Amino acid sequence: MTPTFLEIVDSFADLRDERPFESDEWIERERRKLWVDAPTINEPQGFKATLTAFLNCVAFNDEHGPILDFGGGSGYLYFMLRHYLYKRETAWHVVDKPGLAELGLAFAKENGPSNIQFFANLEATRNNVYRIVHSSTTLQYIDDAFGLLDELLALRPKYFLLTRAKISFNQTFIVAQKVVGKLTPCRFMKLEELRDFVCAKDYELLFQNRAEEDIASQIAATVGDHYRNVASMNFFFARRSGR
User: Using CA atoms, how far apart are residues 11 and 13, in angstroms rounded to an integer?
Assistant: First the structure.
């Protein structure tokens, strides 16, 4: 496998961010996922299957309301899961860049009724009450990761879900990652730092497991062994009763 994590850097500021997630290459990648990949996948697998099972348990217990998917891109996850949700009328709200929202809206228009909405930032969602807030593979690309966690947890969802979070079992570190041929900083957060921060905000950990990605094999041979004890992980938190 060609390495995508290339070298350790001291901070986000020490690497010139080529902003891959705003590039034409990324938009085209997302377009292919929606129009080419999505129709060929029959049912959720890996972290998607875990997430679907959890959402259906919540819905079965009548804990219903919109789901906020921060960094949800073009809504690909929603389009993958919607036919497997216990309550298909569940509203799915995505916060991400306008270019990705345009893709999602176009796909929704071509593929029948949907309950997805897009927002350019968190502030635009303030009039909504979310029982579930979810984010996948987004936290690691935010310089002020704890600031973002504060903002998401300030929404006071009953459930806070992180999927495919980049985790280190030794220490937090930042690495230069190549995405669609462009460099960007990526943080691997020490497991205890992430877990303890969320739990300190009146949440408890319900469940954690490894996602299906083999992250260690994507680290360049020139990176020290100390940085290879890593994983992509899912975390499901619940707000403590009465809080």
Answer: 5
Q: How far apart are CA 187 and CA 77, in angstroms?
A: 23
The residue behind tokens 């680290």 is 219
DSSP 88: T
Q: How confident is the model at residue 64 (pLDDT cuts 50, 70, 90)?
A: low
Distance, in Å, from the CA atom of 2 to the CA atom of 134, rounded to the nearest integer, reads 30
C-beta neighbour count of 141 within 10 angstroms: 19
Question: In the chain, what are the domains?
Answer: 20-167+190-239 (3.40.50.150)
DSSP string, 165-202: EEEESS--EEEEEEETTEEEEEEEEEHHHHHHHHHTTT
Query: Which residues, at least 6 apart from 220, have a Cβ–Cβ distance to it below 8 Å?
Result: 3, 5, 6, 7
Of the candidates 130, 101, 136, the one whose C-alpha atom is nearest the C-alpha of residue 117 is 101
pLDDT, tens digit, for every residue of 70-110?
999 999 999 989 888 888 788 999 999 999 999 999 999 99
pTM: 0.93
Confidence at residue 140, expressed as pLDDT on a 0 to 100 scale? 97
- What is the rounded distance in angstroms from the CA atom of residue 46 to the CA atom of residue 136? 13
* N residues, the chain: 243
